[in-house]
C-alpha cells in the first residue's frame, strides 16, 4: 500500500500523514479560508466568524478526505451555495446507485467545481458512498486551492506537459483510476470532456474513454471487460441559469473570430468563483443507468453515455424558451407559460449579436439534443 501511495502521491487525494499535514496548513490559513468563504457565505463578517468557529468545533473529527467532505463540504459549503444562489435543488435516478458498488460517474460539464461536488452532495444526501473527483491542474493557481481540492478527494490531472511526459502521466492516471474503482472499490468522477460545455452540447470525448484503457490494456485486460468492471454511470447536472453564460459566449465568439482565445492567468479561478457565487435558479442532478452490454470501442461507449445523458437531462423553462425563440415556434410554450421571457432577454440585450446568439443557443441546444434522442436520431 505504501508503494502505491508513493507511486501516485502527487496526484491523488491526501492520505495518512500527507492529509494531516495538508489539513494543518488549511487550518492555519484563516485569512484564506475567510476569503474563500466570500464565495458562499452571505452574512458577511458574521458569516465568516460562524464558519471559522464551526471548523474549530469539528476539526478533531477530521482525519481523512471523506471526513473533510462529510463535516465541511457537504454540511456547510454546498448547502450554503444552494441556499444563497439557487431557487431549488433536486435529484432523480438515485435508485440506479447501489450502496455496495463502486462506479465511474461521467457527467456533463457546465461548472468548474460544482458539477462534481453537487453529484457528491446528492450521493451524500441519499447515504451513498461519495467519489473521488478529477480536476485539471489549471485550477491550481496557488497552494491553498491545490490543498483544498485534494482535501476534498481531488485527483489532479496534469495537462501542460511535454508530449512524452504527458503520455506517461496519462498512463499513470489511467492506472490509478482503474485500481481505485475496480481494485479498491472507491467511486471516481470524471467530466465527459476536458473543458466545459460552453455551447450547451453535451458530448463525451472518446479520448476520455481511451485514456481509461491505456493502463488496463498494458495489463492485458480486454476493452469490453474494463467497461463492464468500471460500471460507468452517465450523470447530468443541469442549471436553470449558467452564471458564466455571457463570459463563455464572449470567449467562444472570440475564438471563432480570431482562431484562438488566450486565457488570462487567473481567469479559471474567477470563473470558478463566479460559478459558485452566481445565481443558478433551479439545480437538478440526474443519475442514469449504469452502462450494460458489450462495447468494443471508445466511440461506442461515448455514444452510449451521450444517449443516456440526453435522455435524463432536466430541461428548464430557460431551455424551452430559448429553443422556441430561436426556432420561431411555440412548440414548447406550455413549459414556460409562467416564465418572464422579457427579463430573460434583457440579460443579454446589451451584447453583440454574435455573443447574444451564442448564449441563446447554449440554452437551446440541450432541447435539440433531447429531441434527437426522442425522435430516434
Describe this structure in words.
- The longest helix has 22 residues, at 163-184.
- The chain has helices spanning 2-8, 16-28, 30-37, 44-58, 65-85, 114-125, 143-151, 163-184, 206-218, 223-230, 245-258, 267-277, 298-312, 317-327, 341-346, 353-374; strands at 86-92, 104-107, 131-136, 154-157, 187-191, 232-239, 281-287.
- Helix 8 crosses helix 9 and helix 14 crosses helix 16 (353-374).
- Helix 7 (143-151) links the parallel strand 3 and strand 4 (154-157).
- By secondary structure, the protein is α/β, with parallel strands linked by helices.
- The protein has a seven-stranded mixed beta sheet with strand order 1-7-6-2-5-3-4, sandwiched between helices.
Task: State mean pLDDT (0 to 100 scale).
Answer: 92
Largest sheet: 7 strands, mixed
Structural class: alpha/beta
N-to-C SSE series?
A: HHHHHEEHEHEHEHHEHHEHHHH
DSSP summary, beta strand count: 7
Oligomer kind? single chain
What percent of residues are in strands? Answer: 5-15%
Described by the principal axes of the CA atoms, the overall outline is globular
Rg (C-alpha, Å):
21 Å
> What strand order characterises the main sheet?
1-7-6-2-5-3-4
Helix content: 40-55%
Distance between the termini: 48 Å
Number of helices: 16
**Low-confidence stretches at least 5 residues in length (pLDDT < 50)?**
none
Amino acid at each position: 500500500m505504501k508503494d502505491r501511495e508513493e507511486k501516485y502521491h502527487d496526484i491523488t487525494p491526501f492520505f495518512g500523514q500527507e492529509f494531516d499535514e495538508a489539513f494543518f496548513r488549511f487550518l492555519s490559513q484563516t485569512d484564506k479560508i475567510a476569503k474563500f468563504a466570500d464565495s458562499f457565505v452571505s452574512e458577511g463578517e458574521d458569516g465568516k466568524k460562524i464558519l471559522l468557529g464551526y471548523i474549530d468545533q469539528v476539526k478533531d473529527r477530521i482525519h481523512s478526505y471523506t471526513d473533510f467532505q462529510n463535516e465541511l463540504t457537504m454540511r456547510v459549503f454546498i448547502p450554503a451555495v444552494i441556499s444563497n444562489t439557487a431557487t431549488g435543488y433536486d435529484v432523480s435516478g438515485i435508485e440506479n446507485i447501489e450502496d455496495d458498488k463502486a462506479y465511474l460517474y461521467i457527467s456533463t460539464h457546465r461548472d468548474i467545481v460544482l458539477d462534481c461536488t453537487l453529484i457528491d452532495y446528492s450521493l451524500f444526501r441519499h447515504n451513498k458512498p461519495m467519489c473521488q473527483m478529477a480536476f485539471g491542474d489549471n485550477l491550481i493557481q496557488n497552494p491553498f486551492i491545490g490543498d483544498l481540492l485534494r482535501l476534498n478527494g481531488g485527483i489532479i490531472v496534469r495537462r501542460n506537459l511535454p508530449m512524452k511526459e504527458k503520455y506517461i502521466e496519462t498512463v499513470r492516471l489511467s492506472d490509478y483510476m482503474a485500481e481505485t474503482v475496480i481494485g479498491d472499490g472507491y467511486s471516481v468522477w470524471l467530466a465527459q470532456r476536458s473543458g466545459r460545455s460552453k455551447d450547451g452540447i453535451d458530448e463525451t470525448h472518446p479520448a476520455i474513454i481511451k485514456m481509461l484503457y491505456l493502463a488496463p490494456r498494458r495489463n492485458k485486460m480486454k476493452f469490453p471487460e474494463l467497461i463492464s468492471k468500471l460500471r460507468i454511470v452517465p450523470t447530468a447536472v443541469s442549471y436553470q441559469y449558467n452564471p458564466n453564460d455571457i463570459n463563455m459566449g464572449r470567449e467562444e465568439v472570440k475564438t471563432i473570430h480570431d482562431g484562438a482565445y488566450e486565457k488570462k492567468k487567473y481567469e479559471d479561478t474567477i470563473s470558478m468563483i463566479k460559478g459558485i457565487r452566481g445565481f443558478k435558479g433551479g439545480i437538478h442532478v440526474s443519475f442514469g443507468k449504469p452502462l450494460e452490454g458489450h462495447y468494443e470501442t471508445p466511440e461506442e461507449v461515448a455514444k452510449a453515455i451521450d444517449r443516456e445523458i440526453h435522455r435524463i437531462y432536466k430541461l428548464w423553462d430557460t431551455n424551452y424558451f430559448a429553443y422556441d425563440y430561436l426556432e420561431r415556434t411555440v412548440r414548447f410554450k406550455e413549459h414556460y407559460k409562467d416564465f418572464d421571457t422579457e427579463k430573460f432577454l434583457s440579460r443579454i440585450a446589451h451584447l453583440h449579436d454574435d455573443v447574444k446568439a451564442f448564449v441563446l443557443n447554449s440554452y437551446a441546444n440541450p432541447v435539440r439534443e433531447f429531441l434527437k434522442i426522442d425522435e430516434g436520431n
